[in-house]
Amino acid sequence: MSFEPMNTLEEKLIEAMNEPSARPDFYRELRNSQIYTIQGGADPIQEKSELAAGQSVQLLSVEMDGKRYIPIFSSLPRMQAFIQEPVQYLEIHALHFFQLTKGADLLLNPGSPFGKEFSAGEIESILNGSIFNAQESYVIEKNTQTMIGQPAEPPAELLAELSKVFEERLKNVICAYNAQVFNPRTDQAPRTLIAVSYIGKGDDIIAEAGKVAESVQVPFPPVEFIELNGSSGLEGYFEDSCKPFYLKESF
Question: CA-to-CA distance for 66 and 109, rounded, in angstroms?
Fold first, then answer.
């Protein structure tokens, strides 16, 4: 299915789905964009509806994988491709819409090759700006002799179990990498390192992933985790030199 971008938001969406480093720009553009959503329970007329102060509207919802979402669209053609019948729709500023629908999960461009699921928590982080915050999680000492590199034999069982957990439970994980670290001053052997990139809140990611690491055997214990959130100092290494063992299909 072809996807010709109709506006800057759709250009940023394509870039964000192909390159994790472009995702902050997508969120910034989204915060400043108009989006489209379908009204339910209205007369079937293909026209735009204006939302007056204090007015309540009924919005169409869709189900995907057993979960309900409010569909939103990055342009009018995306909406028209999804629902090919007369509808009443709203064109509304994204932040205003996110405020109105707080607590709901949203689905951008359902049926399109370029779309995105937004959890209620992710929407909150977009509204308050915390999605752009870098959190302090891992500090590399100056002049350290610690070396980092790719393992000759990746811990296959660990990576498979982590991928399953990221896909099924920790859905805000964008991607994860495996490496080995070694400090000749303190280590007898390399240690296994898992680097995780995520959106929204990551308080439970390391704890949940740590439980998985404790349940499997790895060739080079212990297993250590770091968050790739802009402050670890290792973002460039992983993005430029490593292939992720886990990559979310649609972020």
Answer: 18
Question: 40 and 118: one domain?
Answer: yes
Quick one: pLDDT band at residue 200, thresholds 50, 70, 90? confident
Same structural domain, 120 and 202: no
* Total domains, the chain: 2
Q: For residues 127 and 151, state if they share a domain.
A: no
Identify the pLDDT of residue 138: 32
For residue 206, what are the domain limits?
147-247
